[in-house]
Amino acid sequence: MKKLRGQGIVGLLVGGMIALILLTAVVMPVVRDVVSDQAYTGTTKTITDLFPLLLAVVGLMVIVGLIQMRG
Predict the structure, then answer these.
(1) What is the pTM of this model?
(2) For residues 12-23, b (16+ Cβ closer than 10 Å) or e, as one string?
(3) Tens of pLDDT along 11-40?
(4) Which end of the chain has fewer CB atoms < 10 Å from its terminal CB, N or C?
(5) CA–CA distance, 41 with 44 (Å, rounded to integer)
(6) For residue 1, what pLDDT is reported?
């Protein structure tokens, strides 16, 4: 059987969209809520304030890595 060329990229895009939705709709609000409820100061507060940004960067890197693996 011949494998369809567009099938892999469509699956990748659908998987990437699902991962992006989960990251933005579930993980980010939970992390923000947990971080904002704590009374951190100084360096600890700076690092915990960067968690949502780091999650976004890691999510983007995972999606780009998956696209490069397929290509």
Answers:
(1) 0.60
(2) beeebeeeeeeb
(3) 777 877 888 888 788 887 888 888 777 788
(4) N
(5) 6
(6) 46
